[in-house]
Amino acid sequence: MKKQLLVFLFLIFVSNIVLSQGNFNIYKFNPRTQNIKQYLPPLGVLIDSAIKNNPRIKFWQADIEVGQSNIRSARRQWTRHIGISSDIRYGNYDNLSMGGTAGTTPVPIYYSKQETRYGVGMFMKYPFFDLLNRRSDIKLAEYEKLQATYNKQNEINNVREEVIIQFNNLLLKQKKLTIQTSYMETSNLNLMMAERKFKNGLIQLTEMARLTEINSRSKLAFEDAKTDFVVSFLILQEIVGFKF
């Protein structure tokens, strides 16, 4: 009895060593034996990072800035109808001046002269239709900005919800992995002991086949659980935009 107990403890030790060599080298912890929640950043940090790095939120932020630019443009629209004109002319110009001495009647004097003349002026041409629609154009630009603001907030809510769901999904995947690990360890031990008994003629071939099939199913379930955990882990990293 004591010898069988020692053999059983040895099998447990060997099984744990084998299982601890699983393909989990990409993590800073062992997800089968350590609680992942202790190694993850706080949920609030994950949410903030996901919001900061989300391209859809950046898109709507850019749309808000475009809307603000459109508002400024609509408010300055009237300045497009103001202009300055200037001209310069050279040629013969007829001139009229009044000549005469003090105490006499002025006499008009006509003469021609080649000279250069300059002209500068300001004008404003504001179509009546544009004047009537100025307020509407400003309102339209403001509503476009408001629409982009609502879309951005909606996207923030979606990202926050996505992170919360994926965070808890990862915790669930680890629990399933832990359960499947325990199930596979037990199955491995049962199979090791069954092989020893089968060699000693203590169990039938059918029992050995049954335990082998159970062990194969447990390994397959473990691989499925491990894959689900890895995918869930990488998806969360992708959502938040950094590795942890």
Can you tell me about this structure?
- It is a single chain.
- This protein has 244 residues and is an alpha+beta fold.
- Helices cover 65% and strands 15% of the residues.
- It has helices spanning 2-19, 43-53, 55-75, 128-199, 205-240; strands at residues 82-99, 107-124.
- A two-stranded antiparallel ribbon has the order 1-2.
- Helix 4 (128-199) packs antiparallel against helix 5.
- It is rod-shaped.
Give the SSE map.
Elements: H1 2-19, H2 43-53, H3 55-75, E1 82-99, E2 107-124, H4 128-199, H5 205-240
Antiparallel strand pairs: 1-2
Largest sheet: 2 strands, antiparallel
- Helical content (DSSP H or I, runs of 4+): 55-70%
Give, in order, the helices and strands. Answer: HHHEEHH
Round the Cα radius of gyration to an integer and report it: 43 Å
State the distance separating the first and last CA atoms.
48 Å
Uncertain spans, ≥5 residues at pLDDT below 50?
Answer: 1-23
Describe the global form. Answer: rod-shaped
The count of DSSP E runs of length 2 or more, i.e. the number of strands, is 2
Structural class comes to alpha+beta
Number of helices: 5
Numbering strands along the chain, what is their spatial order in the largest sheet? 1-2
Mean pLDDT: 81
How much beta, percentage-wise? 5-15%
